Amino acid sequence: MTHDVAIIGAGIVGLATAQALAESTSASIIVLEAEKGIAEHQTSHNSGVIHAGLYYKPGSLRAKNCVVGREAMYAFCQEHGIPHERCGKLVVATNEAEIPALDEIERRGRANGLDAIVRLAAEQLHDYEPHVAGVAGLWVPYTGIINYRRVAEKYAELFRAAGGEVRTTWRLTALHRDASEIVLSTTGGEVRTRNLIACCGLQADRVARLCGIDPLVRIIPFRGEYYELVPERTSLVRNLIYPVPDARLPFLGVHFTRMIDGGVEAGPNAVLALSRHGYNWSRISPADLLDVAAYPGAWRMFRRFWRTGIHEVHRSLSKRAFVRALQKLIPSLTEQDVVRAGAGVRAQAVGPDGKLVDDFHILEAEKQIHVLNAPSPAATASLSIGAHLAQLAKERFELEPKS
Question: Taking 80 as the threshold, does the pLDDT of residue 31 lie above it?
Fold first, then answer.
């Protein structure tokens, strides 16, 4: 059998795209996943936040898709009974030097349509989070919490119900063309398709090269490590508490997140992972390290951010240093109040010039669409991104609409 579309990657973006195509076209669609199950990596290793669209450059794909996708996500969860909560978050400037950056975040948020955000003076912060310390803040009522694995599982369920197929442990190993068809060699067997969409996260650049495309970027894996508040100290945090982020970096800084299944996470930091699946320091891939070392863009990035990198590694290895960063937001927190929790690995696309790609990056080729960078808020915006990719596919691949 020859499929109309094969989607590589059963993370939340790939499954959202599959669902959108199955709902709107009569195409035969198959999703191929390398791992034993769906949503094994970035989808299931994030902080579970439904982002508002506060930080992103107005007009960017991140901003547009976050704002639309956020409300679509709330509606989807309501429709399908997925636990979630629109709880809001507090962004805190801990000193006067952070006020200009807070001003810029507020400007971006309002430009992105977040008209209900509230600017707070120091004395108002405790109305929202009694234990924080700061000189000013923003209350963002749009932000929520969720478990994105459950969302991905629902996408897969709806996709299968519409006639789609998901095959796990089918890792792509090669691609060649046979007349008008694309032949995919995988660890599970051969798959024939007329068109291909790749949503491969941590392997996005490698899959592109395997498909004969120069991605022009390289995926550099960054691990984000979390602590968790002990149960008797979760009262320190009502909802979500964020610092003012460093505008030079695409990371938001260590923060506090109440989780939909209970408990409060603190983190993440951002250290170079020693494997694309390096969820701890002991997981090392020589091939992945060689890939980073051989890329000139990685060295240009390191030269630019080496001081930040050293600081992040120190915070990774030292609980005391990690807690000191958290104490900037909640001074009464102690080392005894937190225990190590999980970690995630972020797929960060880096250009040859060493610059971190800051927006969603989609590359099109003949009969192929590749998502090469889908940073946060990709999970929040997954319905919007999936709809966008499905529309691209319908136009480029000339798929028949569902009758």
Answer: yes
